[in-house]
Amino acid sequence: MSSVATSRKIDALVRSATTVAEQAYAPYSGFRVGAALLLTNGETVTGVNVENVSYGLTICAERSALMQAVTRYGPGVRIAAAAVVNLNDAPSPPCGACRQVLAEFIDANAPVSFPAGSAGAVGMITVPFRELLPFAFDLQLK
Ligand code: ZN
Predict the structure, then answer these.
(1) What confidence category does residue 6 fall into, taking pLDDT thresholds of 50, 70 and 90?
(2) Which listed residue, 10, 51, 82, 87, has the most CB atoms within 10 A of its CB?
(3) What spacing in Å lies between the alpha carbon of 58 and ligand 1's midpoint?
(4) Beta pairing, strands 79-86 & 111-118
(5) Percentage of the chain surpassing pLDDT 90?
């Protein structure tokens, strides 16, 4: 399977993220999020948000999916496309922390899809990752 992220592959990612969002552990906010990452090796990995009673230790779906990707495929894993959804019909672009963590593994031009807009008018949009985090922190050490 090619890793080029066609719109059909992005649609499939959105479906995977939507399905996995049912697994979210969100007893405090009720905000259930799913993420799916298409890797350059052709595989797809998913993740959900896992909340914690301390709130600050909550992990987002995007980082959850990324940990899964590295765990399964090793440190050389690269992300070709990403999709984030929620079951709350609300905007949910990746948060700043997730953008920085994804930056370590995602191609600058990789499409990232997420719900955007305002209440009552939320729809999926897709932008290249570089538009989400144009000035990522990077020490250029590798
Ligand atoms: Zn996040």
Answers:
(1) confident
(2) 82
(3) 9
(4) parallel
(5) 87
For 27, the token pair is 């007893």
| Domain residue ranges of the chain, discontinuous segments joined by + | 3-132
Q: What is the pLDDT of residues 24-52, one digit of tens each?
A: 999 999 999 999 999 999 999 999 999 99
pLDDT at 4: 63
Strand order in the sheet with 121-128: 44-48, 33-39, 79-86, 111-118, 121-128
How much distance in Å is there from the Cα of 60 to the middle of ligand 1?
A: 4
Catalytic residue among 22, 62, 104, 131: 62
Both tokens of 10, joined, read 């992005």
